[in-house]
């Protein structure tokens, strides 16, 4: 209540949700379903997008996704008209509200948006939902993963699973059954 009173006294005309301390907003965001958290919240405003990066223990659940998850959704990509012609996320500059970086045309993926991801679930019975590129993106950018569920995703190799396990040393539970 004190923060609300302070904001009102300073003449801030922002919405009441902006009166909440960031810690409380993070708690609220953490309670949202996966689709809302991953799709809607980052598009609300720059502040909410930055709050996504503060969330601890996020579970990226892609079971709602219809069809294979594009690897770009996880890792991000550089637009084809970039100066160096690369397609990797070498440039980690500031991201604007829409996910685009002004210099370098970088588009951030969910791994960058939720760097403190602890677990993920893919699939929906789609054996092509996860490929090696997905696991490698998670292994490279979300080092704190402890639980991985990519059951029924038969389009991955042992090498990618090993790379995930090698990078994410804290994995205690992995379901890769076919």
Quick structural overview:
This protein is α/β, with parallel strands linked by helices and 178 residues long. Helices cover 36% and strands 11% of the residues.
CA-based shape: elongated
Mean pLDDT: 74
Largest sheet entry: 4 strands, parallel
* Oligomeric state of shown chains: single chain
Beta strand %: 5-15%
Count of strand segments: 6
Distance between the termini: 52 Å
- Rg from C-alpha positions? 18 Å
Structural class estimated from helices and strands: alpha/beta
Q: What is the number of domains?
A: 1
- Roughly what percent helix? 25-40%
The SSE string, one letter per element, is HHHHEHEEHEHEHE
Briefly, what CATH class?
Alpha Beta
Quickly count the helices.
8
Strand order of the largest sheet: 1-4-5-6
CATH topology (fold) name: Leucine-rich repeat, LRR (right-handed beta-alpha superhelix)
Task: Report low-confidence residues grouped into runs of 5 or more.
Answer: 1-9, 78-106
CATH-defined architecture = Alpha-Beta Horseshoe
Distinctive features:
alpha/beta; two-stranded antiparallel sheet
How does this structure look, described?
The protein is an alpha/beta fold. The chain has one domain (about 30-175): Leucine-rich repeat, LRR (right-handed beta-alpha superhelix) (Alpha-Beta Horseshoe). The protein has helices at about 1-10, 20-30, 35-45, 45-50, 70-75, 110-115, 130-140, 160-165, and strands spanning about 60, 75-80, 105, 115-120, 145-150, 175. Helix 7 links the parallel strand 4 and strand 5 (about 145-150). The chain is elongated and about 55 Å long. About 25% of the residues are buried. Mean pLDDT is about 75; it is low at about 1-10 and about 80-105.
């Amino acid at each position: 209540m004190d923060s609300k009173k302070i904001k009102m006294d300073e003449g801030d005309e922002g919405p009441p949700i902006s009166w909440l301390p960031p810690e409380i907003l993070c708690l609220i965001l953490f309670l949202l379903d996966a689709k809302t958290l991953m799709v809607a919240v980052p598009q609300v405003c720059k502040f909410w997008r930055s709050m996504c990066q503060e969330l601890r223990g996020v579970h990226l659940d892609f079971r709602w996704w219809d069809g294979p998850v594009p690897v770009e959704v996880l890792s991000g990509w550089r637009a084809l008209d970039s100066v160096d012609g690369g397609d990797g996320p070498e440039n980690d500059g500031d991201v604007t509200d829409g996910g685009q970086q002004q210099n370098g045309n970088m588009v951030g993926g969910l791994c960058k948006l939720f760097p403190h991801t602890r677990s993920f679930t893919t699939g929906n019975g789609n054996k092509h939902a996860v490929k090696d590129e997905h696991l490698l993106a998670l292994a490279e950018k979300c080092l704190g993963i402890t639980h991985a569920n990519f059951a029924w995703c038969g389009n991955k190799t042992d090498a990618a699973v090993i790379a995930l396990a090698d990078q994410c040393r804290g994995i205690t539970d992995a379901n890769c059954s076919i």
